Model the fold of this input.
Amino acid sequence: MENEITKQCVEAISSSEMYTAIASASAAVVAAALAFFSYLLSKKIYDEIKSDEEVIAGPLVHPGLANREHDKCLLMFTLFNKSKRKTHIDSIKAFDSKGDEIEATWSTRIDNVGNIQDPTGLIGVIDNVNVFIRRNDGEKFDKTTLKIRHSFSDVSLVVTFEPFKRWQ
Done:
């Protein structure tokens, strides 16, 4: 009799362990499925938030200073931020037609003769901002490519200046 009670207890424990194992495995499968769906939802939300993050550059032009010699070594363009979030411009590099980098300084302000004012190396853009870039050697800008790095993308925004394009 004692042996039979022991046998029934062992069977009861074995069946309850089996039910517990099945319940645990089922819970793990459900948790994994919910985690996967949660990841998909967060990815969709992230992509939707990032979809409006765009920076657009207007055409590169000389700003039209009174002194024409000072005007030729200076370019101006407008940056437009299409997002509701602020973006930051942390690098603007200029390259000549051969691809060689041009030493230049940039800022959002110039004085009346075209000297760059407050060249901080960082510009915050909420809506739009005018940006001035001046060659450090004082030479005129010929065909020039600007690479503008901003906080919305790892890919630089590329803008090209062709001085005689508007005459064609």
Summary: The longest helix spans residues 2-50. The chain has two helices and eleven strands.
